[in-house]
Write a structure and sequence with these properties.
Blueprint: E1 13-16, H1 23-31, E2 36-40, E3 52-55, H2 58-67, E4 73-77, H3 82-95, E5 99-102, H4 116-124, E6 131-136, H5 144-149, E7 152-155, H6 161-171, H7 175-179, E8 185-190, E9 195-200, E10 207-208
Helix pairs in contact: 2-3, 3-4
């Protein structure tokens, strides 16, 4: 097992938005060149992506991760429910040096304290080379631990005002800025410099937002 490296930077990413607003497209773009990826994939969105292996059994997931402990591998773990999510989080923490993608976290977490394995992955994963990408349609109902620990928060179009208000407070923008977002538009908060940018998926041009 690899030793902890406290010098590694926290680069976790949090993306929220309605279905069809470009959340998963952004993640897939982000992980395209990553050699080791483990996705909690309840809607089976990743298994047909290039280079991914589809696994829907806990036993098979343990087996394939063990066989690729220090090798390249991309796995879509197709499962649902809190028990499966916590199992996935434990696997990601022990596999290490990977990108861990958690889709639809509002279905398996709450705004209160993070489930144990998920919380450990968030708080300690950085020291073991783990980059977390958390995705949700409902930020008002999802775990706040990853939101507070994310280096980058990307906001796509949100239909519910409760979600707009919850995320606007975190990224320090106006609720009206989020209300104006169209599908594929985004606002991105970067914690390192507290910058707030606006853009559109697939386009390179960005503008700076001020409050």
């Amino acid at each position: 097992m690899n030793k902890a490296n406290t010098s590694l930077k926290a680069e976790h990413i949090y993306i929220c938005g309605n279905t069809g607003t470009g959340k998963s497209s952004r993640i897939k773009e982000k992980i395209k060149t990553a050699p080791r990826v483990l996705v909690f994939d309840p809607d089976d969105e990743y298994s047909e992506s290039s280079g991914f292996v589809r696994i829907d059994s806990a036993r098979e997931l343990i087996k394939i991760l063990s066989e690729h402990q220090n090798k390249s591998l991309k796995v879509a773990f197709v499962a649902e429910g809190i028990k499966a999510f916590e199992f996935w989080a434990n696997c990601a923490f022990n596999w290490r040096n990977c990108v861990a993608v958690a889709e639809e976290i509002a279905d398996v977490t709450t705004p209160s304290k993070a489930p144990p394995a998920w919380g450990r992955l968030i708080r300690r994963g950085r020291k073991y080379g783990i980059l977390i990408c958390a995705v949700t349609q409902r930020p008002a109902e999802a775990d706040k631990t990853i939101l507070c620990n994310a280096a980058i928060i990307r906001v796509c179009a949100l239909g519910r005002n409760a979600d707009r208000e919850a995320i606007a407070k975190e990224v320090n923008c106006f609720v009206s800025d989020i209300s104006q977002l169209k599908p594929l538009d985004w606002i991105e908060f970067r914690r390192a410099d507290l910058s707030l940018k606006r853009g559109r998926l697939g386009e390179k041009r960005e503008t700076t937002l001020t409050k």
